[in-house]
Design a protein that fits this description.
The chain is α/β, with parallel strands linked by helices. It has two domains: 171 residues, Nitrogenase molybdenum iron protein domain (Rossmann fold); 120 residues, 3-Layer(aba) Sandwich (Rossmann fold). It is 39% helix and 12% strand. A four-stranded parallel β-sheet has the order 2-1-3-4, sandwiched between helices. Strands 5-6 form a two-stranded parallel ribbon. Strands 7-8 form a two-stranded parallel sheet.
Length: 324
């Protein structure tokens, strides 16, 4: 029964993805493979790049599955790897703030940098949050970088990415690359249809989202969810919510009869669980937004994580799920 709130790594994908740079940066004698190297910041983009590239180039992903892209700091070896790459692929939009200096160092060294968010129709930060809960965190986030929660925007990224790889990475077979990119685009379009079918179980009046931070705005835009608010009112996990914000959010969750708070898998969810307990009769459900899951999670790949998200959303919000 509800109580009225009181104030108060790229996983295994079947693709040949090299994680070490030894082969790409040279080795003993003439045995080193004469292929280009792409360094990718996040596991989500790393999985996408790996599907597009296949064995046409070496791909290194800097962050392991589960890493927080807002907080991740590169090792010295990884900073060097960025400057030695033929192409750096990053989300952009302020997502990988801890990598910003290292990526700029690579750019200054003449390495081309592909910022994925530049190739989608962007949403402004906090675009879908209810105005009364859009509390700033002191950072300048003009663009929401979490475009990957919309498969059709990822299609736009893949099309642009294939062109960038063909232009910047030496020795790539352009025809083979285009074929692999086109095949993956078809997988993304199938993903979009599958997610739409799962989300169709949720009536329009139940498509309300409360999340741990602003990460699902593009999903909300694609499938017409209303974002009531976020526990951390920011696109980054680094901000801290005020007591007033949490009280207002608890009231909004109760007023809108929201049955679940969605949190990033693997993140600290104590605030979300405390809020759910304070309101009563609210479930806390894990989704994947900024990183892939560990093996066995059902979210080891981008396609897998998105299907898992759609299933969990439908299970939590469809009328038959909670009986309300």
């Amino acid at each position: 029964m509800r109580r009225h709130p009181t104030p108060t790594t790229l996983a295994a994908t079947g693709l040949a993805v090299a994680v070490a740079l030894a082969g790409a940066c040279g080795g003993a004698g003439g045995d080193a493979r004469d292929e280009g190297t792409i360094v990718v910041t996040t596991p989500v983009l790393g999985d996408v790049v790996a599907h597009v590239v296949g064995d046409l180039a070496t791909v290194e992903v800097l962050m392991p599955p589960g890493a927080d892209p807002h907080a991740f700091q590169p090792s010295a070896r990884q900073a060097v790897a960025l400057t030695e790459a033929d192409l750096v692929v990053t989300t952009g939009g302020g997502l990988e703030v801890g990598l910003a200096d290292a990526v700029e160092g690579a750019r200054d060294a003449g390495v081309p940098v592909f910022e994925a968010v530049d190739h989608v129709e962007p949403l402004p930060a906090g675009a879908h949050d209810e105005e009364e809960h859009a509390v700033g965190d002191g950072h300048d986030h003009d663009v929401d970088p979490h475009f990957s929660t919309d498969p059709l925007r990822m299609v736009d990224v893949v099309d642009a990415l294939a062109e960038a790889i063909a232009d910047e990475v030496p020795g790539v077979d352009r025809g083979a690359l285009r074929g692999q990119a086109d095949a993956y685009v078809e997988e993304l379009r199938r993903l979009d249809r599958d997610m739409g079918a799962a989300i169709a179980r949720i009536p329009d009046d139940r498509r309300t989202l409360v999340t741990d931070h602003h990460v699902f705005g593009y999903l909300a835009d694609r499938w017409h969810f209303r974002v009531v608010g976020a526990v951390v009112p920011s696109p980054t996990t680094e901000a801290a919510p005020s007591a007033r914000h949490l009280d207002e959010l608890a009231q909004a969750v109760a007023d809108h009869d929201v049955p679940a708070i969605f949190v990033e898998a693997g993140r600290d969810d104590r605030l979300a669980r405390t809020l759910a307990e304070e309101i009563g009769d609210v479930e806390v459900v894990e989704l994947y937004g900024e990183t892939l899951g560990e093996p066995g999670s059902g979210a080891e790949t981008y396609l897998g994580m998105m299907r898992t998200n759609a299933s969990r959303l439908a299970d939590a919000l469809a009328p038959e799920a909670g009986g309300r």
